[in-house]
Automatic annotation (TrEMBL):
ATP binds at K329. Residues 301-511 form the Protein kinase domain. Residues 468-482 have a biased composition (Basic and acidic residues). Residues 468-497 are annotated as: Disordered. This is PROTEIN NSP-INTERACTING KINASE 2-LIKE. The chain crosses the membrane at residues 238-262. One of its GO terms (cellular component) is membrane. It comes from the Eukaryota. GO terms for molecular function: ATP binding; protein kinase activity; receptor serine/threonine kinase binding. Gene3D superfamilies: Phosphorylase Kinase, domain 1, Ribonuclease Inhibitor, Transferase(Phosphotransferase) domain 1. SUPFAM superfamilies: L domain-like (SSF52058), Protein kinase-like (PK-like) (SSF56112).
Amino acid sequence: MEASKENVLFCCVASFICLWTTAYGELTPAGVNYEVEALMGIKNSLVDPHNVLNWDEHAVDPCSWAMVTCSTDNFVTSLGAPSQRLSGTLSPSIGNLTNLQSLLLQDNDISGHIPSELGRLPKLKTIDLSSNNFSGQIPGALSNLNSLQYLRLNNNSLDGAIPASFVNMTQLNFLDLSYNDLSIPVPPVHAKTFNIVGNPLICGTEHGCAGTTPVPQSLALNYSQNSQPSGNSKSHKVALAFGSSLGCICLLVLGFGFILWWRQRHNQQIFFDVNEHNEELNLGNLRSFQFKELQVATNNFSSKNLIGKGGFGNVYKGYLQDGTVVAVKRLKDGNAIGGEIQFQTEVEMISLAVHRNLLRLYGFCMTTTERLLVYPYMSNGSVATRLKALEFGKSTNQKGALLDWVKKIHQEKKLELLVDKDLKNNYDRIELEETVQVALLCTQSLPSHRPKMSEVVRMLEGDGLAEKWEASQRAEENKSRANEFSSSERYSDLTDDSSLLVQAMELSGPR
């Protein structure tokens, strides 16, 4: 009976260990994920001035780390940190990432030898260590990588001959060893694309190098210690010259086309480049958001997060990664001329208007098809929200109803209905009335009667509001009197004189 219990316990423990290793990878004797240990070894041997490798050595697995990609089984399949200004050396512990398929560390300043432990990674398909400062010889162990298809070691300080064992790498499609200090002999590599230019000890010889081509036949003969010139060398040179000329022409055409494309695209997007000087627009310290960031914040612009609709787009409530609550205004058609002008005008005006009673612009986002504005979110019931609702109202009827309601409570001196009840009368009533007056001036029926943004800022600061408000009230009274007089005169005349009534009926008939 006891033996049976022990067997059951053993099976349970074994199953648990199996599930644990499946979910979190294999562990070292110390109980640490061996891939975590390997990556920490790589990090510790590198100098990371910008802390891009902000990895946690106590993590259960590295799959949530920056620059690391994992498979569905939580095994590291890719390590990529190009152009991150990394220096130091590449640790041999990289040989413990046995599921690694891609290694991309190009455009850094990593030095030392290329670790031969890379030859222990059977699944490795891509290696790019170009544009670093690696020195020493190319490890012959790389020829053990039967899955390797892409190898770039160009623009380093590697020396010695290319390993003879590279001749066995029949699966290799691309090999770039240019701009090093490599020497002959050169093995007949089977790569479809093989680049060895910029190696003086190879290209400075009588055989020369001609760019990205299959390995020159003369160099392959040199490897076999038989450098007899070919009888067709002259025809080869002619073909090589023709191919080089054609390649140069193609590069010039492509380069010219790229410049035209870049200039056109740059001119279209220069408005949104906050780091570039623009005389027409000063974005100040506005934050530039990524579209994906705002997608996540608004739950992919869910209808549940919709808080308003305007003439040029919808407004969504969103939550940024740091917990900040925002209102995201998404233009309906980012490519439309009117929408673009609206976007530019709103960014320019609101970025220039800085006042405690104006809803400040927090940031913006632009892609080839999207334009978005990001505001701080104001809770329902606050003065700013109710006044901003005049802009974000869901329809023309709703905007008119809301505007009439504001006018009515202003006339009846009941502005406290606009204020958040949580304030408990802890606000400036005069400032509230002035703010409402500015809002009403900004929503007059005729656009020509509405104040400019610079005037709005001055009025909120107490400059010229009284005069503007008095003038608008006089205009409103005159308009009402004119309407009343016209209406009463028309109907009284028609009622008093039946002949006029008959004449009006005749004029209203068909002609």
